[in-house]
Amino acid sequence: MFNKETKTALEAKEAALRLAFAPVAFQATRALRDMGILTAVSNSRSAGITIEEIMEQTKMSRYAVRVLLEAGLGMELVIVNDKRYTLTKTGYFILHDQLTRINMDFSQDICYKGMNHLQESLIEGKPAGLRELGPWDTIYPGLSLLPPEVGKSWFDFDHYYSDLATPQALDIVFEKKPKHLLDIGGNTGKWALACTAKDPEVEVTIFDLPGQAGLAQQKMKDAGVENRVHFHIANILHEEVPFPQGFDAIWMSQFLDCFSEAEIVSILKRCREALNEGGTVYILEPFWNRQQFKSAAFCLQQTSLYFTAMANGNSQMYHTDDFFQCIDDAGLTIIEENDQMGMNYTLLKCQKK
User: How confident is the model at residue 59 (pLDDT cuts 50, 70, 90)?
Assistant: First the structure.
């Protein structure tokens, strides 16, 4: 997918110029979407719509509508014939596609300002851009403290992809009917709730930081399963804090990409010790080299830089070569791989060597 040149020289220069103006184009696209211009154009259907009609619908000045529409022409979001604007397929996806909207909101609310500190982050190995959101060493203690709309953008982005894989993953995890399951990085408790609904006898322990655990504890009470869902509240990076023991299954969904390779090995070694004999570690991750579409790989590759500048400064969305080495170094072996989970996620089943 990434092993040969695909553009002519002219196409390559055009792509380079688009990247040079990418921040401007991004904000113009948001304005076209959020200020109602793309909606007005979309509602006009094949008849198209004039600047005057858009002005009437949006209550914006002629200047504002004109400069945004002209930018939209260059970005191929709209086309114009006889001074009437219609929506392109790209414009349609910007306006109506949920995945595109979630990615754009995440880029704006979580990443945009902080990305100005990317080079500093790369040099220091710390998320220098995080100061634009809050005074934390990593983003994770601050997730429950973000302003509601900003937090929504983070959680929408985090949940959208992994949620699509949940039904298939539940079937696989519960093939062996685990009695005790450790959910590491349980977040808001969505997976724990799904497990308790799947099996009325399973007991789940959520391992997470205080802020996220607090959100999950309330959800368990609301669902009436607080007697079957327990909590181990600690920072997983503190190696001196022992893992709870005695689990038939350990679950980590889109969790280990939040850590460096050395940290992943440390976490997996402790997972290994927390397993009962014959127990299984289940790891759900999107690997960029396992994606069916180039655009999906692109999104994951760029998400790696969110980890660099905003989240923790040392992790990424991994290539399987690097990630699988961590599993091996931790004394685990992969007994099964499934690349057909949700939106091109991979589910790994690992056991002790």
Answer: very high
Amino acid 264 reads I
pLDDT tens string 276-314: 999 999 999 999 999 999 999 999 999 999 999 999 999
**Closest to 69 measured CA to CA, from 96, 40, 111, 43:** 40
CB 1 within 8 A of CB 297: yes
The answer to whether 263 and 239 are in contact (CB under 8 A) is no
From CA 149, how far away is CA 110, in angstroms rounded?
10
Q: Which domains does the chain have, with CATH numbers?
A: 9-96 (1.10.10.10), 163-352 (3.40.50.150)
Per-residue confidence (pLDDT) for residue 216, from 0 to 100: 86
What per-residue string of b and e applies to 44-75 under the rule 16 or more CB within 10 Å gives b? beeebbebebbbebbebeeeebeebbebbeeb
Q: Burial-class residue 174 by CB neighbours within 10 Å (0-12, 13-18, 19+).
A: middle
For residues 275 and 101, what is the distance between their CA atoms, to the nearest angstrom?
Answer: 40
Sign of the Cα torsion 256, 260, 265, 267 reads negative
- How far is Cα 161 from Cα 99, in angstroms, rounded to an integer? 9
pLDDT tens sequence across 106-131: 999 999 999 999 999 999 999 999 99
Phi, psi of 176 (to 5 degrees): -95, 5
| SS3 (DSSP) at 254 | coil
At 87, which helix (H) or strand (E)? strand 84-87
